[in-house]
Structure formats: C-alpha cells, structure tokens
Structures
1.
Amino acid sequence: MKFLLRRLGFYVLTAWAAVTLNFFIPRVMKGDPVQALINRYQGQIDQDAVHSLYVLFGLDKKQSLWQQYVDYWNQILHGNLGISFTFFPEPVSQVIKDALPWTIALVGMATIIAVVLGTLIGTYLGWRRGTWADSILPVMTFFSSVPYFWLGLLFIALLAIAVPIFPANNAYTPGMTPSFSFAFVQSVVQHGFLPALTIVLSSVAGWILGMRNMMVTVGSEDYVTVAQAKGLPERRVMYGYAARNAVLPQVSSFALSLGFVVSGSLVMELVFSYPGIGAQLFAAIGAKDYPLMQGIFLVITVAVLLANIVADVVYVFLDPRTRQEG
Amino acid sequence: MTPPTTQVRTDRAAARSSDRRPILEIRDLAVDYGYGEDRVHALRGVNLTLHEGEVLGLAGESGCGKSTLVYGATRLLPPPGLISAGEVLYYPEDGAEPVDVLRLSDADLRAGRWQDIAVVFQGAMNSLNPVYRVGRQLMDAIKAHRRDSTSQEREERARELLDMVGIAPERIRSYPHQLSGGMRQRVMIAMALALEPRVLIMDEPTTALDVVMQRQILEQIQDLRDRLGFSVIFITHDVSLLVEVADRIAIMYAGEIVEEASGKQVYKEPRHPYSYGLLHSFPRCTARAVSCRASRARRRTCRTSPADARSGRGARTRCRSARRSTRSSSRRRSARSGAPSRACSTPRGTRSRPSSRSRRPGVDPACDDRSRSRGTGRRPRSGAGNSRRSPRTWPTVIG
Ligand SMILES: Nc1ncnc2c1ncn2[C@@H]1O[C@H](COP(=O)(O)OP(=O)(O)O)[C@@H](O)[C@H]1O
Ligand SMILES: [Mg+2]
C-alpha cells in the first residue's frame, strides 16, 4: 500500500510537470495563431471578438503569466481545453471526444490481441526450444522489421484493391449513422480488420521474442527444476511455474504500450484514413492548431501515466516481492 | 572429531548395509554436456548403489559432477546435458523387478517422482518460486500425487511438515522472500518429505548455511530418517561431516567414483590421495597447524575439471606442473627436516590411522592401484581417457 501511495505521488508530480510544460511550449513559440485565424475569416470578425479570442486561447497579452497559468489550470480541471482553430468554433474537448473512441477501440484491441497471441506463442517457443516451431520467429520478425506504412499499403493493395475483400479506408461505410445496430457494427468490424491485422503483424514479433527469452531464462531457474522433480503435470510446470514468472516483464511492457495506443496510431490512421486521434494530431500540426495539439498531448500524457499506474497495481498483484507487508 | 558413539553406529550400519536390499542402483552412468568435439564428459561411468535405510555419503570437490549425478539419475538434466550411457535401477517397494528410471515413459516418470525419489537441490535458496506462498508449493506436490485428497487435508499436511522441520506452521502463508535462508532450506527438506519418499537425495543441503544452522539441520535430517526410515544420498564436499552421518561414503573425482567404503574406513585409511586431501583439508586445533596442514593437503590433491579431462591429458598435464612446483619446495623442506621423500602406494592395513606424527613430510597417502580399480569397479576402457588411469597420472605426492 505504501508502495502504491509513493508511486501515486510520483505520478501526480509527473502530471503536473507535463501540464506545465504543455502550458509554456506554445507561449514561447513564435507566430500568432489568433492572427492566422483572423486572416482566415477576413473581415468577418470584429475587434471585440478578436479580443475574446485572445482571452479564450490563453494568449491575452494584458494578463500576467501567473494569472494565465492559474486560468489554464482552472480550465483544464473543468475539462475545458480551449477551442480548436481548424474546427472553429468546436471546442477541443469535443474534437478529442469524437476521435478518441475510434483509436482506443481499434488500436487497443489490436494491441491486446498482439500481446495475448505473442505471449502464448512465446511461451510455447521458449518451452519447446529448438523444435521446428522456432521457424515462426524469423517470419514474424520480418513483418515487424518492414516499415509499417509499407506493410499497410501492401495489405491495401492485396486485400482491398487486388482482391477487394476489405474496404481500404474510413472507420465505417460513409453515410451510415453511428449506432449499435448490427449493420453498423459489422461495417465497423470490416473496416477495422485490415488496420488491426497490420498492427498485430507488425508488433507481435516483439511480444513473442520477449516472452520466449524470458521463458528460456526462467526455465533454467531452480524452482522450475523443483516443480519438474515434484512430478507436477507438464502443463502445470509450464504455465504455473515457468510462464507465470516469465510473464511479469510482459505485463509492464503491455501497460506501457497501452499508454502509447493513443499516440502510436498516427501512421496507421493516415494510411487507412482512419478518423482517430493520430489523424487529428496530424491535422492539428499542419494547421498550427495549438489548442488542439495541446489537448491531444495532454490526453497522451494522461494515458501514459494511467497505464503506468495500472502496470504498478497489476505488478503488485502478480509479484509479492513488490508488496511490503507488515 | 568423531564422537565414539557415532562411530559405533556407523560401523554397525555399514555391516548391515551389505546384506540389505538395494533400493537405487546407478550403473555406468555417463553424462556429457554439449555435443560433438566440445562436449564435456561430466560423468564417466558412475556406479553407485544405495541400500534400503542407508545413508550414503557422496563427497568430492566442487565441479567433480556430484550435482550432475543427481540430475542424471532423476532425469532432470538441464540442456545441454545428455545421458550417453548407463542405467538407474529403482527397486519398487513390493519387491517387484527393478525399473530403469532412464527408460520409463514420461507418465510413469512423473508418477514416480517425489513419491519414490525426492530431491533437495543444491540451490535450495532459489528452489522456491518467489511468487507463490510456501504452503501452496508444499501442497501442489501432494495434490499432483494424491488426487483424492481434499484441500483441508493438504493444508493440514503442509502445516505438519513445516512443524516437523521446526518452522512455525503459520508460515505456510509466507512468501519465500519473507523467510531466512535456513528456513527456506528447511522448507525444501519438508517439501521433499511431503510424500514420504523412499529415497531422499540431498545435494549440499547445508553448504550455504552457517555452522550452527548446519548442525541443526543435520540433526533434524538424522532424526527424521530414524523416524521415517527412508534412504538418503547425502552430497557434500565436507567429508568430516559425512564421516559422522553416513553409513557408507563414496568419493567422487572428475566424474568418477574413486573410492567407496564405510565411513570409518575412509576416515582411517583413505586409499585415494584425493580422499586423503579432502579429509585433511579441514582445520583443527591451532592456527598454525591449520594453515600448514591445509596447504599441504591442497598441494597433494590435484584439481582437475572434466573440461581438461576431456582430452585425456588433463590430470596429467596439470599434475605435472603441480609436481614441478611442489618438488622444488619440498626438496628444500625435506633437506631441512631430513625426512625421505616417498611417493605412492601404501597398501591398506600396513599403515595405521594417520596421526599428526605420521602426517609429517614424507609420509603420504597412497596412490594405491588396487583401490582405484576397485573404486571405479571396472577395468579402464580403451580410448582417450585411458592414459589418465595409469598410476603415473596421479600426482606423485611428495610431502
Ligand atoms: N550446463 C552445463 N554446461 C556445461 N558444463 C556443465 C554444465 N553444468 C555443469 N557442467 C560441468 O560439469 C561438471 C560437473 O558439475 P557439477 O555436477 O555441478 O559439479 P558439483 O556439483 O560436483 O560441484 C563441472 O565441471 C561443470 O563445468
Ligand atoms: Mg553441485
């Protein structure tokens, strides 16, 4: 418990540092995004509106930096991340809210599949080292060493254009209204298949390798030999003793990779024109949409921190040595 | 050093052991590590018989293959270890024909493990899985072999086992990292006794412990054996300890059993120079006596590793250089003391128990040829390893 509290304190500190950084970066950058916006809406915005924009975007030159900082925190804590320039006048929080579920569902699902699959295959390969099954490894490593965008394009060319089984872009058939109807869900699954497949293919090798190597290491531990000597059934030894301990590092990398689900999907969303957070980030950078960028960075930071907290909690459950019992 | 009472007991036991039924018989067991040219012959045809109710001590320097023998005989050799020859015969309780452990089917092997032969491994410190509670690890062995037992019965048994080795039964709720080294060692002993095996193999179960703890655990083991009546193979490099606890002692050297006799015999008249070295490498009495005796004993024996022995030249080359260095210094010494240097061959019986007087420079343990061929139990095989066995290859020992 003490351990978790200490970790929590650390995360709070990290979150504070990240938000503060997020506050300062746009302020030290050159360029005036409000001016850019005014130019875009030439003549349609009067002077009062311009001033309110400055206040809204937190670029009010008349306020002290400290006052701006306090206001900034106040806004964040109320879930107000400002207003997006590109989607003016839509608030940033709404833009993120629209994009985030797509990313989390697709990339999150793909990551979980990759982890489970990779860990299972790795367990088997590590246990039955030196059999024909080892030849899976080079194939998987090939997929992970190919640049992701190339892999994505290859699969689009093969399975969406040459043999049009799957759609090449979007998250669902354009024109459908999002709902939980069967037709819509089916459309979503169909559209998500290729992106998910490519993500799994490109990342599973890492999970296999990690697990396999840990299995080899743990397999030579004395307690595994003892488990064998006790005459436990082979599956009990393999899962209960070897894999149970070998999986610990996998758990922490899994939690970390969950944190990067939010950010790590940029290339995939571009290749498959998927309306997720990565695509929004890309658009925001192109349009110098500082509030949106800030908002997305904030979400990414929070996601990574949350994932770390989850990793810590899970680790405490899995490894009694991290517990400090009285 | 050896209390008379113990000695009498071991003598009786030794006399009894010959007419006892064998329970585990290791025949010509050979184990290699690795493949092809680079392989290491860790065991080169080991013969060893354990009788019912007997404590068989196995001693030898570190790296001579004691643990390999344990792993080989229980079919637990880690890669790249390979059994290249031999049999391990286990004699079932009901007097049926012995079974060769090395040729058992996987299912039969698993069924027999722990039930027939249980092992306390050398690394008892790391023998417990850090993520499971001690109780669970005690109970899963019982569960695997006694399918119809209830979880209450198993827990009851686990508590009883801990109590038996002197650990508070509540400790079944502890994780291994919450126990001290000595406690973990005891837990492993308790675990090994969980199914009341007929054979208990203990690979240096006390080496990592301090002397007081060592003694406590040893007494416990002896006590338990007297009560439960299992047979024990007790491995250590502490021969003086074996003299106390073992009915019979086998001395291992470079992957072979070089001497096998009752504890008393080995102690009184070690016939192999290595046994002698082992026996007398333990400090006694005054500091001065300690240091010179120990260094002398060290010089007499010649360490070799299977890796060197692989080529068949190992022992010799290493001993030669050793001989050269000892010779010059010993010549000086013998010139001073006036004692004649003598090498080799003291047939059993012609020499009394080595007293501190007779162990003065010049009088030395023998490279008795007879003892060696008896110890290994067979004629030298042809091949590369052969030259090692000629008398000359043993260190010519000069005081
Ligand atoms: N995994 C291994 N690979 C190669 N050689 C090994 C391996 N394990 C042990 N050996 C060799 O086998 C010999 C016997 O080792 P071991 O049985 O552990 O000795 P002991 O238990 O008597 O100290 C040693 O010389 C060691 O170098
Ligand atoms: Mg050993």
Note: DSSP finds 13 helices and no strands in chain A.
2.
Amino acid sequence: MSTSTEKLEREEKLEGIGCSRKRKEDPRFIQGKGNYVDDVKLPGTLFADIVRSPYAHARIKSINKDKALAVPGVHAVLTAADLKPLNLHWMPTLAGDVQAVLADEKVHFQYQEVAVVIADNRYIAADAVDLVEVEYEALPVLVDPHKAMDADAPILREDIKEKADDGKGAHKHPNHIFTWEVGDDEATTQAFNAADVVVTEKMYYPRVHPSPLETCGCVASFDKVKSHLTLYITSQAPHIVRTVVSLLSGIPESKVRVISPDIGGGFGNKVGVYPGYVTAIVASIVLGRPVKWIEDRMEHLSTTAWARDYHMTGALAADKEGRIKALRVNVLADHGAFNSHAQPTKWPAGLFSICTGSYDIPVAHAKVEGVYTNKAPGGVAYRCSFRVTEAVYVIERMMDILAQKLGIDKAEIRRRNFVKPEQFPYHTALGWELDSGDYPKALQKVLEAVDYDGLRREQQEKRARGELMGIGLVTFTEIVGAGPSKACDILGVGMFESAEIRVHPTGSVVARMGTLSTGQGHQTTYAQIIATELGLPSEDIQIEEGDTDTAPYGLGTYGSRSTPVGGAATAMAARKIRDKAARIAAHLLEVSADDLDWEVDRFKVKGVPGQEKTMKEVAWAAYNNVPDGMEMGLEATNYYDPPNFTYPFGAYLCVIDIDKCTGEAKVRRFYALDDCGTRINPMIIEGQIHGGLTEGFAVAMGQQMPFDEQGNLLGNTFMDYFIPTFVETPFWETDYTVTPSPHHPLGAKGVAESPHVGSIPCFTSAIVDAFSHLGVTHMDMPHNAYRVWRKIHELGLDKHE
Amino acid sequence: MIPSEFEYHAPHSVAEAITLLTQYPEEARLLAGGHSLLPMMKLRFAEPAHLIDINGIKELKGISEQGNVIRIGAMTTESELIDSALLNEKCPLIPAVARLIADPQVRNRGTIGGDIVHGDPGNDHPAVMLALDARFILQGPEGERTVPANGFFLGTYSVGMAADEILTAILVPVFASSTGYGFNKLKRKTGDFATAASSVVVQLQGESCADIRIALTNAGPCAFRAEAAEDLLKGQVITDALIEQAAQKVMAACEPDEDLRGDAEYKTHMSAEMARRSIRDALTKAKG
Ligand SMILES: Cc1cc2nc3c(=O)[nH]c(=O)nc-3n(C[C@H](O)[C@H](O)[C@H](O)COP(=O)(O)OP(=O)(O)OC[C@H]3O[C@@H](n4cnc5c(N)ncnc54)[C@H](O)[C@@H]3O)c2cc1C
C-alpha cells in the first residue's frame, strides 16, 4: 500500500498543477538565444521600408518613384495604384471596416503608409524612401472626437461616404461609425429619477500604446514553383492570420504556412494585420524572393494599434445608505481613421458592458458611440479583455465618487454593494453571468494586511499638516476567456481553443496548442496541466505553438484566453487520453476499467494492493498491446468551446505621497490581491502580476499619445512615452484567495490582465484621494508630475512664504 | 532610423583631427560618445558626409590635478567622472551631476566634452560649468586658446567656438574651504532630460555669502546664470526669506519652451524649486 508521503513524493516529481516550476522558456531568453522574427534570415532576402505621410489629412496629388527606382539595389516601389489590380490596396479590419494598405488618393493620419520600397538591404531601402516624391494637398484636420459629428466637420472616409445612408446602421454622420447600446434605458431613467442621491462624472481614458519590447515585423517568403507562402510574423493569432492571408491573396489556406516564432510581447498590439505585412507578402509574390519588413520604434508607436481613447460619463443613482439603484454610462469612442478596433464580431465596444463591476446593481444602461478622427487606427485590448479596462475604470471611479458624496468610506461603500458570495452565479443587469467570487473576503484580507484604519489615521494627521497623501482602493471584476462561440467570433470563426496531445511509447509527450505565448510561459504551464492530468513528469512534456502547419487551429492569445480556453482544451484532451489509457490498463491487468482507481501517475485495481500500471507502462502498451478492436496509439485532440467566460477578481490598495512643490507622486505601497481560481504555477502568476502592475503603473502615471491641432503625434519615442524602468517601478506586494471557476475543467480563470485592469483605477483613486478633502472628485490620467502640479497650483497648495 | 551615408575617419592625434576638420569644412563632424550626434543622424536631422571619431585620441582623456585646478580631458566619459576619486574629493559637484545623466549605457559612452559643446539646453554640464566658473581649452588650426565658461553658451546648439576647433580639456577650480554645492534635477524618469535643474556653488565667509553662482538647465535657449538672484544673496546672511526672494528672481530669468514635460509656467516654477533646493543643499555643505 502506498503511504501518503510516498504518494506526495510521486506527485511532487510530476511538477504539475500548483507547482512553482521554473519557466522552460527562460534559459533561451536569458542567454539571448530566443528566435524572433528579425532573427529569421533566409537566403536572398530583400528589405521593405515604408514612405509615410507627414500630414494627418491630405489628398495625394502625385507620387513620383523615378528617383527612388534609380537607386542601385532598389527592386520595386509599390503604391496603392500597384496594389489596386490585385484588389489589395484596402484590407478588411477585425471590426468590419476596411483599412488602406497603402494610401488610396488620401491620407487619413500622420505617418500613414503611402508607398513601400523594396531593396537589397535596409540601408538602401531607407535612402530610397527619402527619394520617393509625394505631392500632398493638405485638408482640414479632425482631431477632437467631440467635433466629429458637427455639420461642418471635415468628412474623413470618402471611400465609404455612401454607406452613411445605406440603411444598415443608423449613421448620423459620415464620421459616425456605430452606436451600441445595452441595458434598460427606461428603467434606468426611472431609477435615477427616484433616487436619493445621484453622482455624475466625466472622465477621459487617454489613448495609450501597448508598446511591446519587440516592434512588429514579418518575413514573407513565396515559393513560385510550389505556389506556397511561408510567413514569419509577430502575431498573437497566427491561425487567424493564415485565414486572412488566404482570403486576401486567393492562395489556398493549405499553401499558406504562418509561423509566429518567439514574440517579444504583444499586449493586444499583435492581433491584427498591418499594412507592412500585406505589402511584404505582395512584394514576395511579385518578386519571388523573401521580403523582410521590421518597423522601428517610432513607426511602431505612431501607426500600430493603440488602446483606450474613451471619453466616458458615468452616473450612479443610490439611496442615502449608498446602496446603488442604477448605473448609466455614456461613451464617446475615438477610433481613429479606420475602425480596426479589436473585438469579437458582435461587440463593437467589446465587453464594455462588464461595467457593473463587482456590484449588485439592479438596472443599468450603457451607450458607446464610435467616431472617426485623423489619427492612427486601433482600439485594441492592451493587456485586458476587449474594453474591460475602460469598464472597470469607470465603475471603480464612480464608486469612489459616490462614497465621497455620501461621506461613506470607500471600502464600506464597496462592501455594501458587493454581489454576495451566495448570489453566484450572478446575472448582471447588462447580461453577464458572473461564475464565482467572494468579494468581501478579498477586500477584508487586503484591509487587514495594510492596516487600513492605521493608514486613514496617518492621512488625517498629514492633512492637518498640509501634506498630501492618498489611499487608493479598487475591488474589480474582469471578464476574460472569450468565449462561448455563440457569443464571440473573429471574422466568423468561433472563439474556441484547441489542444492536441501525443504520448510517445516511452511516455514523453508532445502537445500543440492554437494559442501563442507572448511571454506568459505556456511551455511551462500547459505542461503542468498535462502532467497532473496524465501522471507524466512535466519535464518530459514538450509544448509547441505558433506554426500553423503543425498546431491545431486556434484563435490565439489575448483577452486572458489561454488558460480559460486553451488550458481547458488541454485538460479535456488529456482526459480523453486518460480514458483510453484506463481501458488499456484494464486490459493489461485483466480487470474491467470500472475496477480501477487513478492515483497520481497510475491505475490501481481497487482493493488489490500491488496490482497497478503506471501511465508510462500504459504508454508503451498503447503501441503494442491494446484490447481487441481498439486503435493503437495514445493521442487526442480537443476543441474547447467554453460554456461561459471566466470572471477573475481582486482587491487592490495603493498609498501615494505627493510632493507639493513638484507634483511628483510616489507610490509608497501597493498591495494586490488576486483571485484567479485554481493557480497552476504560482510563480508565473506572480510574475504576470508584477508585469501587469508595472504596465498599469505606466498607463496611470505617464503614458499618453498626445496630438496637436494639426493631428501631429507628439511624443512617439521612449524619451516621452513612459516605459518605467526598475528605478521608477514601485515595490509590489501580492496576495491571493482561491475561488475556482465552477465551469472550467480545472477551475482556473486567467490572471495576466487583472493587474493591469485593476491597478489603473487604483492609482487614480489614490491620487484623487490625496485631494478629496479639498473637494476634488476626479483627475484624469496620466498622473504625471506636471498634471498633478497643475491641480496643486490651481488649489494654491504650493505657496512659498 | 538609418543615417545617410558617411565616410568614417579615426585620427590618433588632435592635430590629425584638426587637419581633417579643415579638409572637409561644413561636411565634417566630430564623433565623441555619439549619444547626441547619432540620434540626430538616425533621424537625418544631421547628415555629415565625414564623421571624425576622436575616441582613439589618448591626449583627450584623463583627469589630473594641476595646482588648484583640475584638468578634465574632453573625452572623459560620464562613468569615468563618477568613478574619479580626485573629483569626488575635490570637485564633487561633477560626479553628482554625472550620476543623474541618462542611464548607464549612455554614461559609458557619453563624454563631458560632447555634453558641453553640443549646446543642448537640456544638457547638464553647461550649467555645472557656469556654476563652477570653469574654463575650456580649445585647439584649432591657429593653435590653442582658453575661454571662460561664462559667455561660452550662446543659444540652442550654439557655442563660442569655431567649426574647426576642438575642445581638448576643461579646467575646474578645486573647491576651496567653506564652499558648498547643490545640484537638483527634476526629470520624468530615468533616461529623461531635466524638466528643470539647477547647479549652485556657494562660498561662505563666516555666516555670510562671499560668492554664489546659480546656474540653470533647460530653462531657456541655453544654460545660464540667474545673476539677479546671485546679486541678491551675495554679502548677505542667507535666510529662508532671502532664498524665496532669490527664487522669484530665478523665475523672472527663465524662458523655457513648452514640451511634454510641461508648459512654461510649470517649468519656471520647477526651475525656482530646483534652485531653492540647491541653494539650501549648498549652504548645508558649505557650513560643513
Ligand atoms: C536617452 C538619453 C538621455 C540623455 N539625458 C541627458 C541628461 O539628462 N543630461 C545631459 O547632460 N545629457 C543627456 N544626454 C546626452 C548625453 O549626455 C550625450 O552623451 C552628450 O550630450 C553628448 O556627448 P557625446 O560624447 O555623446 O557627444 P556626441 O554625440 O558624439 O557629440 C555631440 C556634438 O559635440 C561635438 N563634439 C563632441 N566632442 C567634441 C569636442 N571634443 N570638441 C568639439 N566638438 C565636439 C560633436 O561633433 C557633436 O556635434 C542624454 C542622451 C540620451 C541618448
């Protein structure tokens, strides 16, 4: 009989679920041995570089390529006119719009792609770019989205102007993209009319850029003999790219191979298809040689997908005790020049309707209106599920504001309104079914850990001395893991995820998934899931992703999908294997499968000690001794369509001290408690939380993409765009509770985006809190020293005697 | 992000470098640490046809004491300034400033000479040189001359030397007794230039201020001294009230440009705040 310590030892050897196993991918990254797109070097490669518009809005009068073509080593200069015969001068976007691949008659934003030069090397290409002569006629520029639907606003999209009265969408104006409404408008109005207290606040969530370490790029290699295209690309969703490339180029999907090698971060920026990719593919097809395109940092920040840019008005109705009666949110969304918002097809504002948060709100209404402006296209989910960051921001801000209005502590107001543990599964007023949670417990744990009452006392004393100290608090709920395919699809493909697992005769495993790690450590965690499910050591389990020729079709990694959907597919595929293995084991032990118990890594005959077969033994038998009528081999595939999203949550607290003379805000303490359900690798979770908090800190305290009145982007380098180093980054304290998801095979919920989503409003909460005794209810991000000082100065707090 | 084509030269002596400069008038630029020049070339704001790399010239390196003066070779890197025992002992303001310049990568290549000569109002050494009352040794086809820092900085990217001259060394006085310094710099993050910064050197005689120099970074087209503020404090026992009056004079002297670091009003206030802090720090140090 196996003792429990012996069992535990066997379990530990597997390094399965719950083990803080070291990341398998780190040795190669730490040694500089990763393989990124720019490391792909094919013989005969040509290089692409892009001619970009200096104007935000202008008509192209002429393009003269002669001088550029005359440079030795230049192979081609492509413009929209060259792509037109192939019908590739425009391409579809994820949001059902079209985007110019190369500017067709007009440019719509500064740095827009106008022409592409293909040359022997990057240096020649860069010289030739300077020699392409483009004549522009400047047009009036639309920068302010509030003016987009004015009668005299310049019309941006002449290409789809007609669609304004096509009767499909109720387009109020040619610059109007969509209006999306959810909830009960009338009931919400009634609740507001009847309420004791109403608070309303306008807030702007600035345009920010995910700015992964690695910029975007690709190598397109078309084999003219085989009519086969290989595309190496920095994509979070290689399978979708294959489908799009096939649809656009007419090359059968079976002859398109997309390889996403190591990706230096994505954060939502690497989901869509960019003009550089399309032009590299066309050039490779035309020239029959591999073509490489790699953007530089300025191109990346200026033209690839940014996030947010939501002008939000939140309103809460409540009774005198602060119990919420209704929520209303109105949003004006600046989508830039083309609507390339990242979204499942049916959700023009993504999952923004999660804006009821962690609270039991009886009625709600949300309305989002999208407009065009002369700015780069985007609107992606920057380390969050589609538009969830914005939703969490507005509800968490409004909770603070309601608390302030009623003179109730901001922890208490949350406690009074939480969805209670016994209410799960909870149906929100805007249509979601929250799967599980214990919000009061999470909050209480944080308040005790930081001695909240002590902090409030300290703040009182500091205020008396005229010092500025703020305490921020957030109790967020996310919605991740898109998603049920009946609710979510991308370009018509349902948002399932896939895993294919093969157990070799010796018991080692190769598994392939449709997701793609961009830093999350899939090679490590997926192996742990399989290790626990199959009782084989994770060390012997090889995880592969990113090659569409070998991996099963999947929708990719973003929106915290990988564990909720890909992880579920992995567990389900493993369970199919275990079922088959049980039948093989029964055959070997000459019993019925029902007589077997599964224990860690082996099947045991019930009540007969010593009668057992390990998974390793079964694997060997699967290739030589299976029951009659059974297929040989030990492998399985699963396509997992989740029954619901998952809803990770957390409670964050932040303490900030502000220098009254300079406006600098120092984060003294940040305590983050996350509940992501079952924890597969606690160390990776902590790493992801550190990263997410750091990015959240960057967004809240410094990131922005500002434009001048002419639509010029100010600050598209890392001198201005805030990427914190370890010098700026606060110390993070992390904590957790575990409330498993009831519908996920492992109970796991996804975590890497929570810290970003949850921390951003927490920083704002702390900053505003430092001024709340002076009647300040909200301050827009970024909370950089300059903007904070403006408030200090406005309040006259910086007087020197 | 790729510079236009240029020819690369690597002379081994100052004389050789000057010959190259005269050989390609208008077309040549000296390459020191490259941390100001190369970014401009990558953006093609600067397109020199000839790049004269002076990193191989040994006579431009080194820090030595010559009587009551310290001589710093123009090609001394920020990291070398930070590590110099001599400077830390006898002119600690310079290492203190160097420590807050950019990041280790930049400091390992960037030179004090390049920082001074580039004429960028955001660079820190010019104001430090003014506060220290430094002198510069310039060498050109006609020979060598020594000029004071005071009056050298003329405007943005404009300094008082000819295109065929090379800054070979910087002379700074050894700190006398009862001398203190202060350096305060407000920046958005590591690697950023100053939103505002102020270098102050004060010399006390008993309780009162015998001499003071207050210099500012990024508060105008080039580094400058707030002389009205200095005049107000000289000969006085410096009190909080006087510091406040001096801060007002500093504000009156500032004319910063608006950028993403802030508008002119903010930067003016921050210049005053950095000056206040530096004056206080300098006084504390002078009192020992
Ligand atoms: C990210 C970043 C942040 C920075 N932050 C700061 C900061 O906070 N404070 C600060 O002071 N600086 C800062 N810098 C600038 C940095 O210190 C540069 O190194 C410095 O301005 C120029 O010195 P260099 O040796 O690199 O000169 P180079 O870039 O090689 O040359 C600059 C100019 O000076 C000329 N030149 C160089 N040496 C001589 C010489 N001996 N005689 C004549 N002409 C010469 C060159 O021809 C060129 O025109 C920053 C730079 C970067 C990239």
Note: The mean pLDDT of chain A is 96.
